[in-house]
Design a protein that fits this description.
single chain, 239 residues, alpha+beta, Nucleoside Triphosphate Pyrophosphohydrolase, eight-stranded mixed β-sheet, 7 helices, globular
């Protein structure tokens, strides 16, 4: 991902709000990624790029793939993202574990397509989601060793609403997931959005599954779905 002045401005404001220096370092986080990909400071996982994840951790670790679906309302320009409510009451993203003992890009995509079908009742066509939609990966080498791969995909308004209507017909409903919610993210170029701040004032107190809290924060920064003014507010409520 290329770095431009807006990326630098956004990440600089995010880092300042959570006490990360301009070099991306802090006492609570470590990241070797581009500065356009901010790393959440509360994560127990270390962010790594995909080649490192597959070269160094393809075996001996549990791999999981998840995705953030989002769209922009054509009439208002408002961005929304999708999250799930799991059967344990925690919030997370569509996705799940890879089945094969050795994980490569093909296995990642196979697992992601399978999980989206099982959890969302959404049949993807070939090429609808590709490895190019990968945003970042995280690794945890202590306790239960895991590698979490995260993707982001923009949908049309029609596709997004289709997911909202059909997810309750999915194979894993309601045994694994009991519903979905639409997360308001605002308009990245208009500054403060009252709807976003009102939502996150309460939503930040919810329980998130695994690394989902940090995946939400890092993905909305990486995809530039939220304004610099609002991202500082969101972090203050959710970190």
């Amino acid at each position: 991902m290329s770095v431009n002045n807006r990326d630098i401005q956004l990440v600089s404001q995010v880092n300042k709000s959570v006490g990360i220096s301009s070099t991306g370092s802090s006492s609570t986080t470590s990241s070797s990624c581009s500065t356009s990909l901010w790393s959440a400071p509360t994560s127990k996982f270390r962010r790594i790029d995909l080649p490192e994840a597959l070269a160094n951790y393809s075996t001996g670790h549990i791999h999981a793939v998840h995705i953030i679906f989002w769209f922009r309302e054509p009439t208002t320009g408002m961005a929304y993202a999708l999250m799930q409510i799991r059967s344990d009451g925690q919030f997370g993203f569509p996705g799940g574990k890879c089945d094969e003992p050795v994980v490569d890009e093909q296995e990642m995509m196979s697992a992601l397509y399978r999980e989206i079908w099982e959890e969302m009742d959404y049949r993807l066509g070939d090429g609808d989601i590709t490895i190019g939609d990968h945003l970042f990966s995280h690794v945890r080498t202590h306790d239960e060793a895991k590698v979490l791969h995260f993707f982001g995909k923009q949908l049309t308004a029609e596709q997004f609403r289709h997911l909202e209507l059909t997810h309750s017909h999915a194979e894993s409903f309601p045994s694994e997931t009991v519903g979905i919610i639409r997360i308001p993210l605002g308009q990245s170029d208009i500054g403060e959005c009252r709807a976003v701040r009102k939502f996150f004032a309460g939503f930040g107190r919810q329980k998130f599954a695994g690394n989902a809290r940090n995946q939400l924060l890092e993905s909305i920064v990486a995809l530039k779905l939220i304004s610099p003014e609002d991202i500082q507010y969101v972090i203050s409520r959710i970190v």
